[in-house]
TrEMBL record:
It comes from Pseudoalteromonas phenolica. Pfam families: S1_2 (PF13509), WHD_CvfB (PF17783). Residues 1-62, 67-129, 142-204 form the S1 motif domain. Belongs to the CvfB family. SMART domains: S1. This is GntR family transcriptional regulator. GO terms for molecular function: nucleic acid binding. InterPro entries: CvfB_fam, CvfB_S1_st, CvfB_WH, NA-bd_OB-fold, S1_domain, WH-like_DNA-bd_sf.
Length: 274
């Protein structure tokens, strides 16, 4: 399919490059500078397939930032009368038509978009109108369920995130203890699904397991820091947040648990591995 990475078989090597078996797409051309020297006819090569300016299926071995079906943060390289053209890391830029821009794009800025294949033109396109690609049905997530997140935008109350590529949720500011940026991909946990279908998300597990996981992270840091970390129960919350992505309250509960187990000693501004 256009806009995706695939392994295709080389059917012919020539002076200009290689022709690949694209199945329903027919022959797909890969230019010589991108054909690995060790490959022969009959071998397979992983490529990304797109249409050139004449509409011919073309392959590249370059790394692409995203493929059809992905959400990705892409930079606008150029704007003309038909829309904005975004960089995905190959010679061909991707069009975002004006009617798919929400908000209207500006040259040099980056936007979170969804890549899709336009049915009429068979062109790979990008849309920043993300809502149209998300599931409108009430989800069935369970509290503390681990999910994949993409940071979509910053709001007055927190960060809007895309959950498992299917739903939107919110991570509230008072639960964020690490730097977040638009387009960032990370793990999170469902806090609750409200009666109106809105989803609250947190970046740390809730309950006892949260402190166990943080405790294991602290022990790992201690072992890689010669048994000493200059953070204790009187340390600056910002220093704790910067090193462990955790609130001071959670940090104190985690090191308290490690102390009770006889694993560490705690001072006002340091902890030491026993």
């Amino acid at each position: 399919m256009l806009g995706t990475k695939q392994h295709l078989q080389i059917t012919e090597l020539c002076a200009e490059g290689a022709y690949l078996d694209g199945g329903q797409l027919g022959e797909v051309f890969l230019k010589k500078s991108e054909v690995p020297e060790y490959l022969e006819e009959g071998d397979s090569v992983q490529v990304f397939i797109y249409q050139d300016n004449l509409g011919h299926p073309t392959a590249t071995t370059k790394d692409v930032i995203a493929q059809v079906g992905d959400f990705a943060l892409l930079r606008v390289k150029e704007i003309n009368k038909i829309g904005a053209f975004l960089d995905i890391g190959i010679d061909k830029d991707i069009l975002s038509p004006y009617n798919e821009q929400k908000p209207k794009m500006r040259e040099g800025y980056s936007y979170l978009v969804k890549l899709y294949l336009d049915n009429a033109s068979k062109r790979i396109c990008a849309s920043s109108n993300l809502k149209k690609f998300l599931d409108k049905e009430t989800p069935s997530y369970k509290p503390n369920e681990e999910v994949d997140l993409i940071v979509a935008s910053k709001t007055d109350i927190g960060f809007k995130v895309i959950i498992n590529n299917n739903h939107t949720g919110v991570v509230f500011f008072n639960t964020v203890f690490k730097r977040l940026f638009i387009g960032q991909k990370l793990k999170g946990f469902i806090k609750q699904v409200r009666e109106d279908g809105k989803i609250d998300v947190v970046l740390e597990k809730q309950g006892v397991q949260k402190f166990k996981d943080l405790g294991e992270q602290i022990l790992s840091e201690l072992k890689s820091s010669e048994g000493f970390i200059p953070l204790g129960d009187k340390s600056d919350p910002e220093e704790i947040k910067k090193r462990f992505g955790s609130s001071k309250a959670n940090f104190k509960k985690a090191i308290g648990g490690l102390f009770k187990q006889g694993l560490i000693d705690i001072e006002a501004k340091s902890i030491t591995l026993k």
